[in-house]
Amino acid sequence: MRTFLLGLSLISLLACNGDEEPVVSSQPVESDSDSDSDSDSDVDSDSDSDSDSDSEAPPVDLDDLDDMGYAIRYDDMTWITPDPELIELLEGDGEGSLALEWFIFEVKGTVEADATIDLVAAVGEERDEAMREAACYPLADTGEPIDFSDNPHFITETIDLPYEFGALQMEILQFQLSGMFSADGDAILDVTATGLIDVRPIEDFTELADICGFYASIGGECIECPDNQPKCIQAELYGERAESREDVEIDRTYDPSTDSACP
Questions:
Q1: Pairing mode of beta strands 168-181, 159-165
Q2: At a CB cut-off of 8 Å and minimum separation 6, what does 111 contact?
Q3: pLDDT at 86
Q4: Whole-model pTM above 0.85?
Q5: Assuming Cys at both sites, which of 100, 102, 197, 218 could form a disulfide with 74, CB separation 3.0 to 4.6 Å?
Q6: Max CA-CA distance within the chain?
Q7: What torsion, rounded to 10 degrees, do the Cα atoms 150, 154, 155, 161 define?
């Protein structure tokens, strides 16, 4: 999806603003630290609460999931990392911001004997009287059913999602989706998308030698990529609930690299 698929909003603005001077917050470091501490405390508390609730979550009947579709608005989701203030700073209303409206999910099938579900996800848009995959965005689809032995919880296999921003080629590495189905199958709860954004293509594209230095100046931190180089940004996006929708239709054969309308 874009962040995460949503991390893409971060990438696009870094690409567009790479020639500008780094923006440094006017707030004292101590104040930021206190704010982060409070934020961390809140997240930890929520996480503990969710964990207790999740451990008691009843399993869902796989028959209730067959051909189900779900959707959640991007605006109803929260950035866990990078810091939401950083996302707001980078997204802004700039030329490089990418318009996201929905994330959508479709269960293409289930196999109870194998405890698997065939789940596809995508950035969504309302088109032709249905909720469909958005043009020019890659699908979050491993092409294989995923393990559902921890019913009602699911987590997809990690995949690398290629993405183009104009002439800039990049990937969201180790992209993964997780969540849990409600007992009646009418919603996906605790929707979480994670991935790693490799900043090196941005450095090559913008001729800005140290994206991680820029990122650190506005409160971020680069971490190790799969090749052990500290050139990745961790992205995590959380949504409380993706509601079921009968009009979700994801064409899993869609490939933006063969779409002539895409850059």
A1: antiparallel
A2: 62, 117, 145
A3: 55
A4: no
A5: 100
A6: 58
A7: 150
pLDDT in tens, 123-176: 899 998 899 999 888 888 888 899 999 999 999 888 887 666 556 777 789 988
Per-residue pLDDT, 83: 66
What is the spatial distance between Cα 61 and Cα 175, in angstroms, rounded to a whole number?
27
Task: Label each residue of the chain as H, E or C.
Answer: CCECECHHHHHHHHHHCCCCCCCCCCCCHHHHHHHHHHHHHHHHHHHHHHHHHHHCCCCCCHHHCCCCEEEEEHHHEEEEECCHHHHHHHHCCCCCCCCCCEEEEEEEEEECCCCEEEEEEEEEEEECCEEEECCCCCCECCCCCEECCCCCEEECCCEEEEEEECCEEEEEEEEEEEEEECCCCCEEEEEEEEEEEECHHHHHHHCCCCHHHHHHHCCCCCECCCCCCCCEEEEEEEEEEEEECCCEECCCCCCHHHCCCCC
**Per the omega criterion (within 30 degrees of 0), is the bond before 152 cis?**
yes
Of 207, 226, 220, 192, nearest to 79 (Cα)? Answer: 192
What is the rounded CA–CA span in Å between residue 180 and residue 51?
12
Which residue has better confidence, 214 or 67? Answer: 67
Res 14: pLDDT: 46
pLDDT at 48 over 50: no
